[in-house]
Fold these 2 entries.
Entry 1:
Amino acid sequence: MIKIENITKHFGRFRALNNLSIELNKGECIALIGPNGCGKTTLIKSILGMVLPELGTIKFDGKSIKNDNEYRKHIGYMPQIGRYPENMTIGQVIEMIKGIRNHTNDLDTELYEKFEIEKMLNKKMRTLSGGTTQKVSAVLAFMFQSKVFILDEPTAGLDPISSEILKNKIIDAKNKGCLILITSHLLSELDDLVTQIVFMQEGKLILHENVEILKEKTGEATIAKSIIHLLKTQRA
Ligand code: ADP
Ligand code: MG
């Protein structure tokens, strides 16, 4: 579904992505993990066309994303930090995004209802807590029946109940055959969601493995323990 070949991205002299290749296929829920600054967000933004690697190619359904905008309508994106016009209300922001996406039929309003957004429609974006802003981002990411979801730290700042609602939404999307790419610092949270692990370090792909195989290889029961096991044996 998404095929990335040999992408390299520099910011000035700093190499944020180093000749990285990876294939992301539908029906998978893929956790992108690695230390702060290893290039996770840069990789995500490259897929979205928000960062342009100077080398390599990215294909979406077999077609290069270069000079193409169409593919983006298939992606629901939840940014790590959602930035919205401060003086707009939640309702205005939702209407604005609906207009930009130009997708009025078959909206998915499940999160809108479960997060009880209706009660807050008149609140200005600048008055919202981090968690509420995150809810708005989640509602917008899932509203347009996308086939790919890219979620950058989706549950950061959410209360436990909202976090559970969002996790169930992600599981439903995976079961429908969507591709989900998710980053999270809370590895424990990923156990009931994720089918594959991608581990990055210093802009390079270190590991891309099915969770079941990873657990089998390391003899560990959780993703967190498997990763720690693997890092220890690599260093040894
Ligand atoms: P991660 O999401 O894994 O924490 P990022 O992809 O955000 O890491 O960043 C990777 C590295 O690239 C970091 O060292 C960061 O400072 C640098 N970087 C990211 N975006 C920019 C930018 N627009 N200008 C300069 N440096 C950047
Ligand atoms: Mg990041």
Entry 2:
Amino acid sequence: MEYQLLAKTYSDLESTASMLAKKDILSIFLKNTPKQILKRISYLVTGQVFPSWSQKELNMAHGLAIQAISRVTGATREEITEVLKKEGDLGSVTAILLESRKQSTLFSEKLSFEKVYTSFEKISNSEGRGSVEKKISILSDLLSNASPIEAKYLVRTVLGQLRIGAGHGTIRDAIAQAFGVSKPLVEKAISVLNDLGEVSELATKGESALVDIKLVPSRPLKVMLYPKAETVGEALEKTGEISQAEYKYDGFRTQIHKLGKKVIIFTRRLEDVTHQFPDVVDAVLTSVKVNEAIYDSETVGVDKHGFIPFQKISQRIRRKYDIKKISKEIPVETHLFDILYLDGKNLIDEPLSTRLKLLEKSFTPSKNLKIVDHMQGNAKELEIFYQEALDKGAEGLMIKSLESSYKPGQRVGFGYKLKPKAESLDLIVVGAEWGEGKRANWLSSYILAARNANTNELQEMGRMATGMTEIQLEELTQELKKLVIKDGKIVKIKPKIVMEVAYQEIQKSTKYASGFALRFPRLIRVRDDRGVDDIDTVSRIKFLYQNQFKRPDNQ
Ligand code: AMP
């Protein structure tokens, strides 16, 4: 197949806002796609190159794409950046630059889908020494044989920003329509297999091929998510009078697959972190009695006083060397809270009560592999349990319906999370950075500072780039432009604008002058009513930091 057919479909999808029209376009395209490439086409139409469970990535940085575009179009980096400011995405920039050179370009050959896909695979396989040059030259080669519209989508695909507005629901419905099978069956198959290509292929064989699909140990599936409830009572109204309550630890989600003697650990983003956690692998091999299983769990850092904040174990997730050493320095515990597959049987459609029984039977708890701290009870009992969880350094409580199944990748309300409300902070903007892509015309990331009451200095405590609406970004940019003291991509701002900021956690930081940074800062509102003298002091932030987990040792 020629790549231009796919590019034309992308363009048709992009140019209509109607979801129904998008679904129709996609379904016709899938129906007419030759069988031998249907799998790969199914990934590409959603902007993926590999199945969702795969660890493969293109890893093509913005800068590398710019170099390739520069080579092929002859435009300098500065010229490309200039057009990018107006256009908002590098794909469109490439198309424009190629268009303006049309006369001088001679396409040597028509770009085939096969060549494009093989090139993507080559980009993904380029690692280590010389890989930067290799990636640039593979993309340059593709672009030099591409028409402007093909180039636009090639660049967007390698950058992982397809921007055609066809999401999960559209592709699901398009597969169902193209091959005459039911939407719920397609939905279910996608959630179990986590592989759009495989689902499309199965759908061509009719509904019978989509019934009874099994989870595949070693292939991660999307984790179930939980909406937030404000109170125990509100959660119980939805999950039932007697529900399962569990500590909500401040660790990271671990989906653990056991296949005989092999253990694989995935994060919430389905990243394979087995190498970083040999201690968890050992704990699983020692304690788990069954041959094959998929567990859902939270892995949390501990010290001699109890749980430690996420920030510390996040170092372990990133660490690629000296693994044994850091395992000893920052030990972890894994708390299992669900089982999704057991010795050839899918359990995701079983009620939680059944899954919990099977979970308990499947392993012998040890110091590092435990069942989550839990209880089942009524509102009054759960209130006490919630307080106890917070006192012990947990982040909150999960309340789950005992009758519910497990819906991968969805926030369906089969369980709720409860967390105490975080305090907000009033901080002042002392700097800002010009955005990229869609945000290119806005100062869209703000450097925030608190006041040191002893020295009266403004001390930085990190950046915030979320919580602003487009209107706010526009207004803030106009406001901030008047206050610029020093120009550049990152500008220095005269301290005048106070922002009320929500956050998930205060962390210690050596990077910022205040000694603190915020995890997940988000704008609540601009405090027009406040000035530099009203903002929070570093000593209040220190106080909040020390008390945020209600543990005396948390400095
Ligand atoms: P949040 O990240 O605030 O949306 O909360 C959901 C996350 O809490 C999950 O993705 C898990 O990583 C984590 N978590 C901690 N303890 C539990 C538990 N007992 N059950 C489910 N999720 C938990």
